[in-house]
Amino acid sequence: MGFFFFLFAIVAVAGAVGVVALRNPFYCALSLAVHLIALALLFLLLEAQFVAAAQVVVYAGAVVVLYVFVVVYVGGGSKPEPLWRASARQRGLAGLFGAAIFIELSIAILGTGLKALDGDGAKLGAGYGSPGQIGELLLIKHLLAFELASFLLLIAAVAAVALAGRRQGLEDDVFPDMEIVDVRRPAATGTMGEAVGGYGLLVPPTGSEPAPEPAEPDTAGGAPVGEAR
Amino acid sequence: MTHLVEVLATPLAVVGYAEPWWMAIAKSLVIFAVGLQLVPLVLLMERKLLGRFQNRFGPNRVGPFGLLTPIADIVKLLTKEGFRPRTSIGWLFALAPVLSIMSAVAVLAILPFGNVQDIFGTPTGLYGIDVSIGPLFVFAFGAIAFYGIMLGGWSSGSKYSFLGSMRAAAQLISYEAAQGMALIGVIITAQSMSLTEIVEAQAGMWYVVPQIFAFLIFMVASFAETNRPPFDLVEADAELVGGYMTEYGGGRFATYFFAEYLNIIVISGLTVTFFLGGWMLPFGIDAPGWVDPLVVIGKLMVFVFFFIWIRATLPRLRYDQLMSFGWKVLLPLATLNTLVTAIVVTV
Predict the structure, then answer these.
(1) Each residue's pLDDT tens digit, A33-65
(2) Could you give the number of structural domains in chain B?
């Protein structure tokens, strides 16, 4: 047991160091995934199977995937530009917070952690760490806290939808040198628009005329033009 | 040795029967061998059936009736030269298929092929391990399988692979939600997350009847999760050449390919476990214990046939249709199913 603990602990610490030390954001996200999976294995050693599985499903499976998604789309090239540079005050504050956390952890470890080393640990009841027991804890013993947390998540989800809903489709100036004009290719020439039921045709502007309004969908069966979506 | 096996098995095997270490090793070898033998069989079945669906013979040159075709395929792939694009990232490129097949094989471990039987006087569960977190175990390894696809596409250093892996990311997350939601109805009805207990709870009636909506949602989401047509946007050959595995060849491609078909087998096995009474025969027929694994494999093959049938029948969806179907149709339906099940079970 001790061997596995140290193995997973070293992997977890290495992953955590990788998150802050690596330069490429894609590798940072990957080492975060390694760190989270190592944590899940540590939970497994503590017989907390449900927490371990939830850790992998939620963090490695959803959260880090989202990070990876953003990183590769925004562009995690081999030499990423730093988004901002920390000012001297921020650096000082970071050092201060680091020292505070170190002192806090030291107090916790020296206070109670060292005493627990020689003991056998807390006694495990039957079915410890099983979904049934977790459910009992969450939905009976700590119901209020659980519901408050879920309300918080709900609020966050609604807020995300509200923020995303503010943007209605593409902006007009996505293609600054392109305009949507009311030109229709002859029917049965095998356009993509026919196949998928209507996309705007993009052609360079011809003159200084204002851009025409998007055409109404044609009832005669032709592909409606001008619906930029 | 004994100690090692105990340490590894203890956190997981709390619910099931813990066998002596030699039996644990023996049965894992058997499950591994049988499970992997199913893959070439499914490969051949797919090509033969697709041929029949398309009014042709299918492969019939190698061996009698073309039976040795998958062996020839595998030998061909494994003897090919290993290569990678110059723009790829070597170690990730090699690691990705390993992650893919590792997670597929891992889920095979919790597939129950039968209940506890006496084998040489030793009570043995006919499953790798019986975990108390059943479906979560599946989804946890599904999360790791995702990294196999994602890393494969990203590390190839090619645009087609990259687009394929990005599609995989969006698609797998979207449909995993609906798939998991659908299973909650089953878990509520069975009042357990252990796969053997879920099967035993279906003694009176298979869950395909009371949980018909969960079954349908689970099936549709499974097609998307295994990247099978009509949801094979991840490797849509017409648009993306081969998606995340465009740049793969030889043994590594074979690994991906193997993992894909193993996933189909595993997901069929899970469908059988969750909805079709696992190793139980219909109408309360009580078969001797050694029939159980055959029953499971038989039912499983019906679903594999269904997977192939759908591939031969339905065209591929458009990408935005796929996304809106997953989030706007499947997920609300699955949530509704969970809600109704919870109300019916408690009241």
Answers:
(1) 899 999 998 888 887 888 888 888 888 888 888
(2) 1
